Amino acid sequence: MQDIINKIIEIEKSSRNITEPAIKQKEDLEYEINSEVEKLKTDLYERAHLRIDKIMNAEKKNYESNLEKVNSEFKNSGQILEHKYTENKDIWVNDLYNRILGR
After folding, report:
1. Kindly report the CA angle at 46 between 50 and 55, in degrees rounded to 5?
2. How far apart are CA 46 and CA 9, in angstroms?
3. pTM greater than 0.70
4. The dihedral of CA 57, 62, 66, 72: what is its sign?
5. pLDDT digit string (tens) for the chain, length 103 residues
6. Dist CA 50 CA 71 (whole Å)
7. Rounded to an integer, what distance in angstroms lies between the CA atom of residue 57 and that of residue 68?
């Protein structure tokens, strides 16, 4: 009976010697995988922020360029109107005067 108990204890110790390293290896791998996942998340977030910044800068430049074009066109239109006014004001005043008087 004692031999059977000793054999069971020996088998138990042997199985622990086999399973403990496997359990330790599993825990180490889980830690390593979690660390790698966190590193990947951090890298993705950094790349995403860099890409967002790049897109925002490009959009800002595009906006500023379009704003300059609109301002230039507005200024040009104002100059054209001013030139037409200067060129035609006497004609328009006389035409209006004649229409009012019915001539």
Report:
1. 20
2. 55
3. no
4. positive
5. 888 888 888 888 888 888 888 899 999 999 999 999 999 999 999 999 999 999 999 999 999 999 999 999 999 999 999 999 999 999 999 999 999 988 7
6. 31
7. 16
